[in-house]
Design a protein that fits this description.
Elements (H helix, E strand, L loop, with lengths): L11 H13 L5 H24 L7 H25 L1 H7 L6 H12 L8 H23 L1 E2 L2 E2 L14 H17 L12
Antiparallel strand pairs: 1-2
Helix pairs in contact: 1-5, 1-6, 2-3, 2-5, 2-6, 3-4, 3-5, 6-7
Amino acid sequence: MNAWNKSSGIPVSALFLLGTCPVLAGCDSFFGGLLLGAVTVAVFALTSVILYLLRGVVNGAARVVSLLATASALAGIAAYLMQAYCPVQYAAVGLYVPLTALQCVALDRMVSDKNPSALTIPAAWYVAVLCAAGLLREFLGAGTLFGARVLPDYMEVPAFFHSAPGAFMALAFLLMVAKAGGLSLGKTGEEA
């Protein structure tokens, strides 16, 4: 990923984090993160295809509006399909599925001046971050990993990590680990 998005002048890491925040509250387990990540990537891929087909008609400022409208419509359709065919999964993350449209705008800004195939790395990172945050929240908030209890029953875990503010604490912890591991999160183009 380039450190700066040339079209908006905003650091890519800031776009990535801003786009992650809306659905982060729904990722209270590994599978919730995986599901929301997969829905987001699918909605963005379909949105990109539609806007690519309309590239001669929609460009400039109208592209951003069209992107948000198309992504919102597709996210709504995904929510209805989940509600109809996957009611258990919809009960877990359905409230947050329409918010994936916001991540689509952030992903588009990240790859707007590149080939659409450049989405694969940001999309993989996005899904990985949601899964890691979900796994951390699942362990700290319920004492389980991948749905299986790993802590003894006599140990109580704080319910805070299952709440929406706990999602941001988990993200902060993951960012600290990434920074300690040497991952560059906000360098400018010259520093990168």
